[in-house]
Design brief:
By secondary structure, the protein is mostly helical. 64% of the residues lie in helices and 0% in strands. α1 packs parallel to α8.
């Protein structure tokens, strides 16, 4: 596979046009906005909290641990990591969203015969494995040979879910969104974490997600 093919596959799987439903997620942001809990001047700050307290300290770590399990061809360890990812999401809405994204990404990807990706796809289809997004992204990263660059894709997709939801709700415009995205990218330092060190803590987002589940009028799934 050429470097151009790797780059194109990385861009393709990170794009909102890729059929995994990320455009329908706001990660609790819709409810935070609906309850007037986010002053406009603090938009960039709260996005940085998502980045520093959830995505970099948990989702990213799951991705790296999944990569390690795949490279060892350890299906049981991969299933364990998948289960940790699923069960660690506090709200039902977030658990459902991370599985829907993962399974949609899996369904849109063709894996080589006899590859661990092909095997795991079968486990997901038979509901033996959850198929959370960070774990499936690791499988896709191996399939298309962009490997740990998938970490950047994970952070970008999560950033775009929240930032795009703010644009669609009219809180910020496209220019402001680009400024926030550029500043967020500048702060990204990708590193692997030990499984026991993974953590996520952003109570406001969790509470908003719980309340969002009961909201009678919703633009987003999460």
């Amino acid at each position: 596979m050429t470097e151009n093919e790797k780059l194109l596959n990385l861009l393709r799987t990170s794009d909102s046009f890729f059929p995994m439903g990320s455009f329908a997620m706001s990660q609790g942001m819709e409810q935070i906005i609906n309850e007037n809990l986010l002053p406009k001047e603090k938009v960039a700050k709260i996005i940085n909290i998502y980045l520093e307290k959830i995505w970099k300290t948990f989702d990213l770590g799951i991705f790296y641990k999944a990569l390690e399990a795949i490279e060892k061809k350890d299906i049981e360890l991969l299933k364990k990591i998948d289960e940790i990812c699923y069960s660690s999401k506090v709200t039902e809405e977030n658990r459902s969203a991370i599985v829907k994204m993962g399974r949609s990404m899996m369904n849109a990807t063709e894996f080589n015969d006899a590859s661990i990706g092909k095997v795991y796809k079968g486990l997901i289809k038979s509901d033996v494995a959850n198929g959370t997004y960070p774990v499936v992204l690791a499988l896709v990263s191996i399939q298309f040979n962009f490997k740990d660059l998938g970490a950047l894709s994970l952070l970008y997709v999560n950033l775009m879910e929240v930032i795009a939801s703010l644009v669609r709700m009219g809180i910020i415009d496209y220019i402001e969104a680009q400024k926030i995205l550029i500043n967020s990218v500048k702060s990204i330092q990708v590193k692997s974490l030990k499984l026991n060190d993974l953590h996520q803590t952003f109570p406001l987002a969790d509470i908003a997600s719980m309340r969002h589940e009961l909201s009678p009028s919703r633009m987003f799934m999460s």
